[in-house]
Specification:
Number of domains: 1
Number of strands: 2
Radius of gyration: 24 Å
Strand order of the largest sheet: 1-2
Strand content: under 5%
Order of helices and strands: HHHHEEHHHHHHHHHHHHHHH
Number of helices: 19
Shape: globular
Largest sheet: 2 strands, antiparallel
Distance between the termini: 35 Å
Length: 574
């Protein structure tokens, strides 16, 4: 039996708490997936895994990723003005449109897989294909996922998004890790019995592992496809049970819905700049996959001695002899980039929760509410990401050693993470700012700024990564410069459009001071603890102390207020 009631609309902080809680669960499940997976794949297999995502994300962004925010904005605006029947009509329009876009994204992923593999893996393009093909169906499932996520996010109900994200992560863990481990076990069993892997003779167990990695990477990403299918099934079930949650009397009294053509035009007009902006963000990963891989391959052709000397024997001999040095180094960069992406993902949860509140205040012309909401989003974003980014940078070496182990060149990953940790702060802070620009009707600004940042990143990566002394760190520096420029420019535009002034020291200076105190204390504790203590407990003790001091510092500096907790519990809107 269908129910036409749904949970009450959530406040900005309540919605953010739901999404951040889900994000915490997702990241724990992701760690349980990615850390053992890195042990199975090693840097070479991680390169195949990361290369598949590098193509998937831009295609997904162009076809799908801008639409959840566009749907959320349209739903929020119509719900705020009482046009409830248009909200329901919009869902039907989106389902038909996203079904087609999902099919197009799936087809593009398959068709582009061959030229892309030749671009990113010059020596052996066939090694990337299994992961690309296994990930292609995920584009279709995720396109339909975005309909329901955008609908409920626009209604300030973040629970369906949160639950579907957890289901996706759980399926990725169970199926992705299981298929990858099973593929490696099957390959090693064949090698032990006949000295071959997939029917091809191998000179040693190390080479047997290398030969199994393409299939293992394909199995890992197929778990993502399964997760997308399961998440979609849950959201369809949730909608059939709850619908939009509008009271029948209000729905019946609402104005007639707009035509499907009108809704479709507005959706495409609203989503196009958002999709282009999301494309620009995810093209950053493609730039790393294509440009960084290409420049590393160029170095191996023109100056192999200088490149190998820069790593002083830290690359395994079988990797050098099998001509997979660029893949090995790119895999190290991919592992560090996985940690870099944690902060923007956390900020995205706050950005999604902020969009309906900012849109409502903007549509209604409530400037005090708009200023209050923007101020809270900026402050909470800074509070969340500054200590994490600084800590990630300062503790890069022990973090990589604990997470990736000796087989994944943790010192190389740490070398990159020291730079990407700072870059993650700017990337995470720019995420909610861009979302709020979209909410106030200037979705074109993030697009323009993102493409400018992308060009800057591509040019710097091409230049710096082609120098033996910079190599991987050149790509990390380009990422830092790109997101620093993006954050400052986006913030200036947001305040100009909204015609607001902000207390910058209170919003950013105080959290930065508190973060610096806690990280510095953690570093002193790290040096004071006995070196014979294992790195994991040493790291956990430092994090525990730093977190405690950070909360105290925030309270002493007046960064977090009691009103924040009251708003989290109450139904008050920002």
């Amino acid at each position: 039996m269908k129910r036409n009631t749904a949970p009450k609309r959530q406040t900005l902080l309540q919605g953010a708490a739901v999404l951040l809680g889900a994000l915490a669960v997702v990241k724990v499940l992701g760690a349980l997936f990615k850390i053992p997976l890195s042990w199975i794949l090693t840097p070479v297999g991680s390169a195949y895994f990361g290369s598949a995502y590098a193509l998937y994300f831009p295609i997904y962004s162009l076809a799908v990723a801008g639409f959840p925010a566009a749907v959320a904005r349209m739903v929020s605006a119509r719900a705020a003005s009482g046009r409830l029947r248009s909200v329901r009509a919009l869902r039907g329009v989106c389902v038909r449109l996203f079904f087609l876009l999902g099919l197009l994204a799936f087809g593009a992923m398959v068709l582009l897989s061959f030229p892309y593999a030749r671009l990113t893996a010059r020596e052996a393009p066939e090694t990337v294909l299994p992961a690309l093909w296994a990930l292609a169906p995920a584009a279709f499932f995720c396109s339909l996922l975005s309909v329901y996520r955008g609908l409920y996010e626009g209604l300030s109900n973040m629970t369906p998004t949160a639950v579907s994200q957890i289901l996706e992560a759980a399926c990725k863990l169970v199926f992705g890790l299981g298929l990858s481990y099973g593929g490696m076990a099957l390959a090693l069993r064949e090698y032990a019995a006949s000295g071959t892997v997939w029917g091809v003779s191998q000179p040693s167990a190390s080479y047997a592992r290398l030969s199994a990695l393409p299939a293992c990477a394909g199995g890992a990403v197929f778990g993502v496809t399964i997760g997308g299918a399961v998440g979609l099934l849950y959201l369809v079930y949730y909608y059939r049970r709850h619908r939009e949650g509008f009271p029948p009397a209000r729905l019946q009294a609402a104005p007639p819905p707009e035509s499907a053509r009108t809704l479709r035009r507005e959706l495409l007009r609203t989503a196009a700049p958002m999709a282009l902006g999301s494309l620009a963000v995810n093209l950053s990963t493609l730039v790393d996959a294509a440009v960084l891989n290409g420049r590393l391959s160029d170095l191996m052709e023109t100056a192999p001695g200088a490149l190998l000397a820069a790593f002083a024997g830290r690359i395994p001999e079988e990797v050098v002899r099998s001509h997979t040095v660029p893949a090995f180094l790119y895999g190290c960069y991919t592992n560090a980039n996985t940690l870099f992406m944690l902060l923007p993902a956390a900020a995205q949860a706050l950005a999604m929760s902020a969009l309906p509140a900012v849109t409502t205040a903007w549509v209604r012309g409530q400037k005090p509410a708009l200023a209050r909401c923007i101020r809270h989003v900026l402050r909470l974003s800074a509070v969340a990401v500054l200590p994490a980014g600084l800590g990630m940078s300062c503790f890069a070496q022990p973090i990589c050693e604990v997470l990736f182990g000796p087989r994944n060149a943790p010192d190389l990953c740490a070398q990159v993470l020291r730079i990407l940790g700072i870059a993650a702060v700017f990337s995470a802070l720019s995420t909610p700012v861009q979302s709020m620009l979209q909410a106030v009707g200037r979705a074109d600004v993030p697009v323009k700024l993102l493409f400018f940042g992308l060009l800057l990143k591509a040019a710097m990566t091409y230049t710096l990564a082609g120098m033996p002394q910079w190599n991987l760190c050149g790509a990390a520096v380009s990422t830092l410069m790109c997101y620093a420029a993006l954050f400052f420019a986006s913030l200036i535009f947001l305040l100009h459009v909204a015609k607001l002034k902000m207390p910058f020291f209170s919003l950013f200076g105080k959290p930065l001071l508190a973060a610096a105190v806690c990280v510095l204390t953690a570093l002193l504790l790290w040096k004071a603890l006995p070196e014979n203590l294992a790195e994991l407990p040493r790291l956990m003790l430092c994090i525990l102390l730093a977190g405690t001091l950070y909360v105290l510092a925030l309270s002493l500096l007046g960064v977090v207020h009691k009103s924040d907790w009251r708003r989290l519990r109450a139904s008050q809107k920002f």
